[in-house]
Amino acid sequence: MHMTTSTKPLTGLKIIELGSLIAGPFAARIMAEFGAEVIKIESPDGGDPLRKWRKLYQGTSLWWYLQSRNKKSVTVNLKHPAGREIIHRLAAEADIVVENFRPGVLEKLDLGWETLSAINPGLVMLRLSGFGQSGPLAQQPGFGAIGESMGGLRYVTGFPDRPPVKTGISIGDSIAALWGVIGTLMALRHKEHGGKGQVVDVALYEAVFAMMESLLPEFDVFGFIRERTGNIMPGITPSNTHSTLDGRHVTIGANGDAIFKRLMLAIGRDDLASDDQLADNAGRDARRDELYAAIDRWVAARAESEVLRVLAAADVPASRVYSAADIVADPQYLARQMIETATLPDGRAFKIPGIVPKLSETPGSTEWLGPVLGEHTEETLQQLGYSADAIRALRDAGTVSLGASGPQP
Question: What is the tens place of the pLDDT at every residue in 359-402?
C-alpha cells in the first residue's frame, strides 16, 4: 500500500538531476522515494547509459526501472542554447540540483554553480565527482572503482595471498550517494534557519575514505598498515565465514564474551568455553587460529540447516551467506516489506527492493518505475510556460524529445 505523496517528508522539494549512471542518480532516487519531485535531465539521444546496463528486458535495463523510480524524465540537449535556457528556468524554481559531471563540464555549458546560484541564491547544488571540485586531480575522470582504490577500500578487501578484489557491487558510487544525501539535507536545514544556498561537494575517494574506521590513526600512531585478511578481522575474534558439509557458507559472529562461551558450549568445546585466557577479545584474538580451526571442523561436519538451527538455539549470531534466491524467500525480508512487486510495460510482474530507511510516520514508497525517455518533457515544459508551438519548435530543432507513457508499479 503506497502512502500519498503529501505524507512524505520531502514533499514540496524540487530536484533537477543532471547526471547519469550511479552516484548522482542514486542520491536523487533516495530523495524521490521520500517525496521530492525529481526531474531527471537526459540527452534526447539515448538518455542515461544505465538504461542499457546489465540485464535488459525487452531492451531496457531492469536496473533502470529501480534506479529511476519516482523520477520524471525530461530530455534536453545541453549543447543547444535553447536547452540551457530550459535548465536555467528549471533551476530558478528548484531547491536542489544534483550533478555528477567531471568538474568544469557544467561551467563550460554555462550551467555551473556561479550561473545557477545567481539565478537562484537559495539553491543547493550537490556535486559528486571522482576527486571533488578542487585539488590537483579535480579535472581527472574518476569512477567508483577508482574511488574505492584511492579511498583505501580495495587494499584491505580480499585474502592476503591474492591481489585486492572489488565488492560485487558499485559500492564506492553508492557510498558517495549516501554522503551526498546527508550533505544535501544538512544544507537544507541551514536554509531553514535563514542561511543561503551552498555547494555540497562529495568526492568518491573521500566518501570511501570516510568509511575506513581506524585505518589512518593506526598507521599514524603505530606505523601499522591494515592488510587483507580474508573473512576475518584481526582484533575481533571470532568472526568468520565457514563452509558446511553441503557446500554452503555460514557467517558466525561470536566476538562478544558471553556469546563466545555460548558458541563453544554449542559446538561441544566446553574446555574452550571455560578457558580463562579466552574470556576476553584480546585473549581470543591471540589464539584465533586455534579457535577458527575448531569452529571450521564443527561446521564442516554438518549441513547448513543443522548449523543454523543449533546456533539459533544457543542465541549465537549466525547467517547463511544469502544469494538473491535466499533473499526473496526470507521471512524477515517479507515481514519488513523489503520485497515489492511492480509491473513491467508488458504486464509482467517482477520484484524490486523495498524502501530504506523505514520511517514510522512518513515512509517512502514506489509511486512509479523508471520512465521511458522523455516521458515528462512536454508536461514539464508546459509548466515552465512554453507554448505548444514553442515545444514543437524545440522538438524539431533536436533540443528535446517527447516520450510516451511509461510503466506503473
Answer: 999 999 999 999 999 999 999 999 999 999 999 999 999 999 99
* Whether this model's pTM surpasses 0.85: yes
* CATH numbers and ranges of domains, the chain: 5-211+338-396 (3.40.50.10540), 239-243+249-320 (3.30.1540.10)
Query: Pseudo-torsion of CA 84, 81, 399, 23, nearest 10°?
Result: -30
Active site residues per annotation? 173
Task: Report residue 16: phi and psi, to 5°.
Answer: -105, 120
Write the pLDDT tens digit of every residue in 92-133.
999 999 999 999 999 999 999 999 999 999 999 999 999 999
3-state secondary structure 108-158: HCCCCHHHHHHHCCCCEEEEEECCCCCCCCCCCCCCHHHHHHHCCCHHHCC
Q: Supply the angle between the helices 304-313 and 257-266 in degrees, to the nearest 10.
A: 130
Q: How far is CA 394 from CA 46, 177, 324, 363, 386, in A?
A: 17, 33, 45, 39, 10
